[in-house]
């Protein structure tokens, strides 16, 4: 009980000293606050970037394999000459895969016709991507329809002049009207709008957002353009109970059989998965996190040096009081605890101030720009712990000096 009472008195002395020197306390807090703000701000920005990138990748499908001419794992030493003479996936491949794949949930064929203009009377939207796809894409991509519907399998096979448009296109062409049932002009044809995709926002990697897309049946697209010119892709999604590797192994075997490749011949197609992208993201973010960690550590160290400097000044100013306390029987740990608590309190308060600013900025960014900032709770806890540790380290030397003062010399110092 006596120990707890002495610790309570130490808290009282520490906070009394903080109140009496408000300007100095404020300046000390600013140093720690800025350090905490920088370290959490840097890691929150990195986490937000990563979350947005992974969200964009997730839209491609974590259990989907893309059969394409070109692989996704490019780089500065990319051997493009090995792939340039490969054939593009075609409808024969698509039909054969639908018939022969046993581990696939769905198989779809798509082409993207970029940089087109969609018009409705005097309104037009440019830079639109027209996606001509088979009906199965709806199940593979889990497309969300806000209004209307997706085209049916019969409409897909007939090549009906129908389309599902993105939210941005709908806003641009029909600011004050319901788009469903209206006819828009695209690729030189008048096409009826039967559905509107739910607004997704822009993706940060690959152009996978449906906001600026006009989706039409594949057989309609075949009548309007030469599909071989637009880098066709076959998408194969694995069954829920089947491992992606098993589906990939079967897909490779079936594709080699379709293309009549001998065992000695290399694949003349690429099987792309989102794991290729996520592996590249992991490598990139290791470097970014390392750089962010160095920035944060140096920022915190600057705040810690500021606290240590202030504590040395505080010991100097209160030497006479320390002498009186020790002459009245105060133990060394009592003197030590006063200054340690004061240093830790400065860092913890500064840490919470930094956290408050981060959350305020995150709220403002969400409110103004609609961008959700990821603030990692684990990083918040680590930062609070780091603040306490810095306060302990920054205050230990000045506190130890104060505890070892000779009471007679300390009293005379005034």
Count of helical segments?
Answer: 13
Give the low-pLDDT segments: none
User: How many strands, what sense, and barrel or not for the largest sheet?
Assistant: 10 strands, mixed
**β-strand number:** 10
Tell me the count of domains: 2
Proportion of strand residues: 15-25%
**Helix and strand succession?**
HHEHEEHEHEHEEEHEHEHHHHH
Radius of gyration: 33 Å
* Portion in helices: 55-70%
The end-to-end span amounts to 34 Å
**Overall geometry:** elongated
**Average pLDDT across residues?**
81
Q: From the helix content, strand content and strand pairing, which structural class follows?
A: alpha+beta
Architecture blueprint of SSEs:
Blueprint: H1 2-20, H2 22-58, E1 64-68, H3 91-100, E2 104-120, E3 123-133, H4 137-141, E4 145-148, H5 153-158, E5 162-165, H6 167-173, E6 183-186, E7 189-197, E8 213-217, H7 218-224, E9 233-238, H8 244-258, E10 270-272, H9 274-317, H10 319-327, H11 332-369, H12 377-403, H13 407-412
Parallel strand pairs: 3-8, 5-7
Antiparallel strand pairs: 1-9, 1-10, 2-3, 2-9, 4-7, 5-8, 6-7
Helix pairs in contact: 1-11, 2-9, 2-11, 2-12, 3-8, 9-11, 9-12, 11-12
């Amino acid at each position: 009980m006596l120990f707890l009472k002495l610790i309570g008195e130490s808290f009282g002395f520490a906070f009394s000293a903080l109140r009496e020197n408000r300007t100095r306390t404020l300046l000390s807090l600013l140093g720690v606050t800025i350090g905490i703000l920088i370290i959490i701000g840097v890691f929150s920005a990195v986490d937000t970037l990563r979350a947005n990138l992974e969200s964009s990748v997730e839209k491609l499908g974590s259990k989907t394999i893309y059969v394409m001419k070109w692989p996704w794992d490019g780089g500065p030493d990319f051997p493009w000459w090995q792939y340039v003479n490969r054939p593009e996936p075609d409808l024969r491949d698509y039909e054969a895969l639908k018939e022969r794949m046993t581990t696939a949930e769905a198989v779809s064929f798509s082409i993207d016709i970029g940089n087109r203009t969609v018009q409705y009377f005097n309104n037009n939207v440019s830079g639109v991507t027209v996606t001509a796809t088979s009906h199965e894409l709806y199940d593979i991509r889990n497309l969300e329809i806000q209004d209307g519907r997706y085209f049916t399998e019969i409409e897909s096979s007939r090549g009906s002049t129908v389309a599902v448009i993105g939210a941005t296109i709908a806003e641009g062409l029909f600011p004050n009207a319901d788009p469903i049932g209206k006819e828009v002009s695209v690729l030189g044809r008048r096409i009826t709008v039967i559905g509107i995709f739910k607004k997704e926002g822009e993706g940060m990697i690959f152009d996978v957002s449906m906001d600026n897309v006009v989706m039409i049946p594949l057989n309609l697209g075949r009548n309007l353009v030469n599909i071989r010119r637009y880098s066709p892709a076959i998408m194969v999604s694995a069954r829920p109970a089947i491992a992606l590797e098993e589906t990939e192994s079967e897909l490779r075997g079936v594709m080699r059989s379709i293309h009549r490749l001998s065992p000695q011949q290399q694949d003349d197609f690429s099987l792309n998965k989102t794991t290729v992208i996520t592996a590249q993201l992991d490598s990139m973010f290791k470097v970014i996190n390392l750089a962010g960690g160095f920035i944060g550590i140096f920022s915190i160290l600057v705040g810690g040096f500021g606290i240590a400097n202030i504590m040395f000044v505080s010991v100097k100013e209160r030497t006479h009081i320390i002498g009186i306390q020790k002459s009245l029987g105060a133990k060394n740990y009592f003197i030590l605890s006063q200054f340690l608590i004061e240093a830790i309190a400065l860092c913890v308060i500064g840490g919470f101030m930094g956290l408050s600013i981060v959350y305020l900025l995150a709220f403002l960014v969400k409110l103004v720009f609609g961008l959700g900032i990821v603030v990692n709770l684990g990083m918040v806890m680590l930062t609070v712990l780091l603040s306490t540790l810095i306060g302990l380290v920054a205050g230990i030397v000045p506190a130890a000096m104060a505890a070892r003062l000779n009471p007679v010399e300390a009293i005379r110092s005034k």
